[in-house]
Fold this protein.
Amino acid sequence: MHKIVIFGAPGVGKGTQSQLLSEKLNLYHLSTGEVLRKAISDETDLGLKAKKIVESGHLVSDDLMIEIVVDALKNNVKGTEGFILDGFPRTIEQAGALDNILKELGLDDLKVLHLVANDDEIIKRLMLRGRTDDNAETIKLRLKVYIDSTKPILEYYKPDRKIIEVNGIGEIEDVFNKIVSYLQ
Ligand code: AMP
């Protein structure tokens, strides 16, 4: 059973690599960003609550995000070879809540896959991607949010979690092959 959190700055390639990995290893892939973008385009209650926040580059509230992830893990992991979380946890509080739910579900011993890249490369990639929340101003804010709120999670995980560091820069296939070889 694979229990993976994919971690890294916005734009480092977490979505692409998670998608490939979930197909190869038959994992449940949960992208909280995708859940929010779909809710926004479907104009659900969640979407209406989240729209402005997502478009500004700030983080949606921990309570809301934790509820989404708890429900999703409870309902979708059965029948798979595990899961990969992409975009969650984003705060220490989310990381703590994740530990609790995984313990409850008997799914602890999480691996952390850290895709590493420098800021210049990240900015270049985000400018090229062209999502509605990708413009010079929100990119700067999202990087700051990443550094202030998300990156400290690595320290939280360091003492007793397996952290796998992979350089996220390079051909998609090369990065993917490296990830697979580290996980096996
Ligand atoms: P992403 O696709 O992971 O880059 O997420 C896009 C946006 O969705 C982020 O900039 C946040 O506004 C929001 N978001 C996604 N995941 C989370 C999370 N775990 N906590 C708070 N906000 C999130």
Notes: Residues 2-175 form a domain with the Rossmann fold fold (CATH 3.40.50.300). The chain has a mean pLDDT of 95. The chain has one domain: 2-175. The first helix runs from residue 14 to 25.
